[in-house]
Amino acid sequence: MLARLDEIKRANKLDFAAYVKKTQGVALNTDAIFDVQVKRLHEYKRQLLNAMHIIYLYQKLQDDPSMELQPRTFLFGAKAAPGYAVAKRIIHLINSLANQINSDPLCRGRLQVVFLENYRVSLAEHLMPASEVSQQISTAGKEASGTGNMKFMMNGALTVGTLDGANVEMHEVLGDENMFLFGLHADEVARLKAQGYAPQRLCERDDALKRVVDQLRTGFSDGVSYDDLAQRLLQRDEYMLLQDFASYCAAEQRMAKTYADRAAWDRMSLLNIARSGIFAADRAVAQYADNIWHVPHK
Q1: Which of 115, 107, 111 is nearest to 252 (CA)?
Q2: For 126, which of 7, 19, 75, 288 could close a Cys bridge (C-beta 3.0–4.6 Å)?
Q3: Is residue 119 part of a domain?
């Protein structure tokens, strides 16, 4: 069964790669992990944290080109509200990062970043069955109970995420061992803010983090600086990206190590699919009928 599951996922990755090649003209590395974050672009959803981790991996690869690195294809899909300037800057950053990495021979076959154009339902129909990692990394205490994470779970993707929103319900049926949790909990976020969170001091104590933030300031080979984003992190960091950075990198490392063990990964994927039934619409409607509407049902 696990071998068959692996075959199906491989076929779905090839299908999605063909779809992206046809619609966007981009050739995806189907031998890499499909690591996916698709959702509305907002600071609390922390697409910027994802990008910072990619910068961290890129810098490590530059330091040691022979390092062992599980190949990754990072896939982003998002739209920003028309007047949300910061969200648009983050989209610009991700595309700058993609251009830098995808044009660097050092990254060929190892790192790839793609911002999917015009994310929509018809694209998601191809993407979700092909996804292997689902990024659900909102700041704890900020996420409403969305359904995107459930759709990825039903399609066998494993979650890298915070314990917030619907991730909490997923965790109840999966346990720590079948997802990759990281970061502060909601009560810890509130407590740290009340005590006086000092992101700049945190950055100064962590060389790897400081180097990533410095990269935001200088930008990449296109000459565009993202110092405005860096300053938002250093001066306030409302959504705790700097605080959760080290924990997030560690979770990503655990994920990559697990992926290398195909049997273990496929077992976890199968368990995610098998335990996703609690999120089915039939169960939700039946529970509403019993507890809210008080009407009979079959």
Answers
A1: 111
A2: 19
A3: yes
For helices 227-235 and 207-218, give the axis angle rounded to 10 degrees: 140
Amino acid 170 reads M
Contact yes or no for 181/135 (Cβ under 8 A):
no
Q: What is the pTM of this model?
A: 0.95
Contact 51, 97 (CB under 8 A): yes
Is residue 165 pLDDT above 80, yes or no?
yes
Enumerate residues 6+ apart whose C-beta is below 8 A from 227: 216, 217
Helix (H/G/I), strand (E/B), else coil: 180: strand
Distances (CA, A) of 11 to 31, 129, 226: 12, 9, 38
Q: What is the biggest distance separating any 2 CA atoms in the chain, rounded to whole angstroms?
A: 65
> Are residues 179 and 158 in contact, defined by beta-carbon separation less than 8 angstroms?
yes
How many structural domains does the chain have? 1
**Considering the domain boundaries, does residue 298 fall inside one?**
no
In contact, 61 and 55? CB cutoff 8 Å: no
Residue closest to 200 by CA, chosen among 159, 165, 242: 242
Find the radius of gyration of the CA atoms of the chain.
19
CATH of residue 196's domain is 3.40.50.2000
pLDDT in tens, 8-50: 999 999 999 999 999 999 999 999 999 999 999 999 999 999 9
Distances in whole angstroms, Cα of residue 228 to Cα of each of 40, 215, 219 = 21, 12, 11
d(Cα 199, Cα 272) in Å, to the nearest integer?
36
The amino acid occupying position 280 is A
